[in-house]
## 1
Amino acid sequence: MSRMLAADVHRLVAEFAPLSARDRAAQEDFASFFPDESGAVWRDSGPDHATASCVVFDETLTQTLLVFHGKGRFWVQPGGHAEEGDESVVAAALRELREETGIDAAPPVGALAYDLDHHGLSTRFGRCASHYDIGIAVIVDPELALTVSDESEDVRWWPVDALPAEVPEQLKPRLAGLLERLRAQR
């Protein structure tokens, strides 16, 4: 499984199509950290490693689903570390979505809209120093029932143009980039 997941991370980084200077810098950063198919994809791989997240939008692309992260003390998209059994970044992201919100979403159909985001972490995250996060975009019905997990304190839909004050600085540009990718696919 480890080799399949590392190969998937490497493939997604190599195939990423930058739309901005931010995207180009992220792709270069990821490419230097994942130069081949043996990259750090597990939490135990070291303090810097890959993670997968689900950036969730409603069909109108005007709302996004966020969880209030207990350790981070901020609102963020569902996501986290890969686990045994995750054969791809998409599988890991969808599992995290299910665990953190109760939503069992199907894999995206057609072209995958995703982004790359490397962010440092505070000491509240223990031995994790930074995450190389691959965020996949999914569309779900905002009427679906939500469940709050043990890792978060709340799960809530937010207007993409009126996010809460407690979000990581990289969330707004990530949402904007993913929305641009999704709109281009329509």
## 2
Amino acid sequence: MTDVPPLPETRLDYRVAHLAERLAAGDLGELGVRLELRGDTVLLTGTVPSARCRDEILAAAREELAPHPLHSDLLVADTSSPDHGEDLT
């Protein structure tokens, strides 16, 4: 049996997988944020319930993936009630 050395932590694909595990294990795991590696840039997509959640995810991504470029397409769901009634006429 040949021993296979572990992936070095400097590899971006390893770091992206680690971030995905970190997000899934935390309080934000149910959000369904997706991470895609495109060249040396990481794309985050999905919908989050608040700007605070988005900011926490982006902070974790910047910490884990620095200095690689990060592009965020995270949308904040608007869960506030409407300020007027809907006109159905």
## 3
Amino acid sequence: MVTPKEQQSRPAAAPAPEPPRRRLDLGGRLLRFAEAVWRPAILLAAVFAVWWIAAEQEWVAPYLVPHPADVWHTVVRDWGSLMHHSYVTLYETVIGFALATVLGLATAVLIAYSRTMDKALYPIVLFAQVIPKIAIAPLLVVWFGNGLAPKIILAVLIAFFPVVISGVAGLRSTDPELLELSATMGASRWKTFRKIRFPNALPHLMAGEKVAVTLAVVGAVVGEFVGASEGLGYVLLLANGNLDAALLFAALILMSVIGILLFVVVEAAEALLIPWHASRRSATPLTTS
């Protein structure tokens, strides 16, 4: 039997070694990135090859599908002008998307928290969505002129609906037991919203945001179709009127680039806001122990 004195004389056991911290592996990041992009890269390369061969063999008239080299020469030749028009479209898109996010989230909160507002606002939101935006674009030009306002308003109108729907779905998907626990603990409605409802709604909301940001580009360009003197929509109309297929394709490619870049920005924001969600687990970088 070991006496207390003998226990005190024994050296203390060494603490268990802490597990090494997980560190980011640059090679793993690059591998994950390569795994994510190689399939679309191959598909894009195949489409480009078919495009090049079809243009080289003149299977399609050049005024319908231009040669890729002609598109490249057009981009190089009109780089300054195209960048200016791209900036205008990007500005209209970002402002419209930001306003749609704020207004859409506010509307979603009203619908989710109030049955009266749900009955009053939801039909109006649905009615506004089903109206073809191209049909009201001339009216907006009459009301607000040919400036930026009609384009931004159209971007808001098109991007608004996905934000509202995803926000309402997220706010209503909160576990009722969590809400009961919050009420039992005496939390205010604002604190419950900030700590429970809003974080729970973020996965749904970010999914709607990714849809909305691409639709905002469409809204801005549709507004430029109706009345504008700058922007990629104006470039498309100008190229179509002059039968300049190379300029038309260049503007379309730049529009696609803007949409992809904005989508990537929203994707990055999602990764920062909800890294804990199941939808982000497959997107986390590889780590080593």
